[in-house]
Amino acid sequence: MTAASPRRPALLRGGAVGALTAALALAAHGAASGMFPAGAATAQLLVLAGAVGAVASTARRGFWPLLTVLAAGQALGHHLLGVGDHPHAWAHPLTMLAAHLAAVLAGALLIGAGERLCAALSRAVAAIAGPVSLPVAPTTLTYRAEGQPLHSVSLLRSSISHRGPPVPA
After folding, report:
1. What's the pLDDT tens digit per position in 99-114?
2. Which residue ranges traverse the bilayer (predicted)?
């Protein structure tokens, strides 16, 4: 394995949390209110999803931290979508809350299962494939200066003229 391999599952988890934050917030709002937001609210939700994904990639592994990050993302996404021109007036608050809670629970379960499956598959592939690279025997280099002048001395000797003025006859 390379030195960067422990970081890869965290980045995958962050990407999945970010994508699910945006997708589930849109789906929960669409299911509860009957219409999907568009325009600037969707763009702001994508920025929020990136931020939540970055937080999730640095959070600890496990179900509860994942559930907490997803719940915070859904709460922020709900308030973000409620600020714009998205109508909440005729959506029942309990229906909206139930939709967001179902989205958080389903997302945490799916991401946790995917993370465990990815770890199991990675271990299986690593066991089958064996080591990534063979160890290289260390070599020792020795420097011997047996009659070889330094390169700078050779350059200095060749740049100095050894010819003097002509000898009078």
Report:
1. 778 888 988 898 889 8
2. 37-56, 63-81, 93-113
Identify the helix (H) or strand (E) that includes residue 74: helix 63-83
Joined together, the tokens standing for residue 12 give 């995958």
* pLDDT beyond 60 at 56: yes
Q: Quote the distance between the C-alpha of residue 1 and its chain's center.
A: 17
- Report how far residue 122's alpha carbon sits from residue 129's, in angstroms, rounded to the nearest whole number: 10
The span from the CA of 28 to the CA of 26, in Å, is 6
DSSP state of 148: P
Contact in structure between 61 and 1 (CB atoms under 8 Å):
no
What is the Cα 31 distance to its own chain's centre?
31
Q: Which residues of 19-50 are buried (b: 16+ CB within 10 A; e: fewer)?
A: bbbbebbbebbebbbeeebeeebbebbeebbb
Are the C-beta atoms of 104 and 70 separated by less than 8 Å? yes
Tell me the C-alpha distance between 103 and 30, whole Å: 12
